[in-house]
């Protein structure tokens, strides 16, 4: 069940999930625990999930007031003022958008998770819905979280407190916010810009948008 093994036999398809690795012992235990779980209990949990019949993210799937307030703050606010307030100098609007949604996962009340599709606007989806995963933004988000955790261990929790502060600012903005935007335009903009942020899906890398073909006019 555990390494060392003499080798792995099969067609090479790149990196593999090696559950015989010593560091995968926790994964093996988790799989074993699930296999011993009463299937009736598992199905009770799944029965609470009511999913739409479509896979793409639509306006009906998200709380537009919450998403709109977040997009307004991270895209429309003066960057310098926002940075000074949150002590996140040099963090661009796209990463701020991701961090705001991450901060809500960490600090948000359970009532704020009624529209889980909204959180896909943090780092996209590997299938390209609502847009390709912006790997550069993804990595930057992880880096900021990691630095915050490391500093908090040394007694400086400013970075982690910043995430809570970011969540509170977004929540306060929602109170007086009236959504007036087309969610499909937001998604299309994310897709058009995805290649700039290292966008990837299971189908490959995101490509720069192609220029529209010129219209050929004819007299006949």
Structure explained in plain terms:
- The chain is mainly α.
- Helix content is 49%, strand content 3%.
- The chain contains nine helices and three strands.
- A three-stranded antiparallel β-sheet has the order 1-2-3.
- Helix 5 crosses helix 7 (135-153).
- The model has no long low-confidence stretch (mean pLDDT 85).
What attributes characterize this protein structure?
three-stranded antiparallel beta sheet, 3% strand, 220 residues, globular, mainly alpha, 9 helices
Quick rundown:
The protein is built from 9 helices and 3 strands. By secondary structure, the chain is mainly α.
Give the CA-CA distance, first to last residue: 75 Å
Number of strands: 3
Class by alpha and beta content: mainly alpha
**What integer is the average pLDDT?**
85
Give the helix proportion (percent range). Answer: 40-55%
Number of helices: 9
Shape: globular
Instruction: Provide the spatial order of strands within the biggest beta sheet.
Output: 1-2-3
- Which parts are unreliable, with pLDDT below 50 for 5 consecutive residues or more? none
In N-to-C order, the SSE pattern is HHHHHHEHHHEE
What's the Cα radius of gyration? Answer: 22 Å
Beta-strand level of the residues, as a percent range? under 5%
Write the layout of secondary structure elements.
Elements (H helix, E strand, L loop, with lengths): L24 H11 L3 H9 L16 H13 L2 H8 L6 H15 L12 H4 L9 E2 H19 L4 H17 L8 H11 L5 E3 L2 E2 L15
Antiparallel strand pairs: 1-2, 2-3
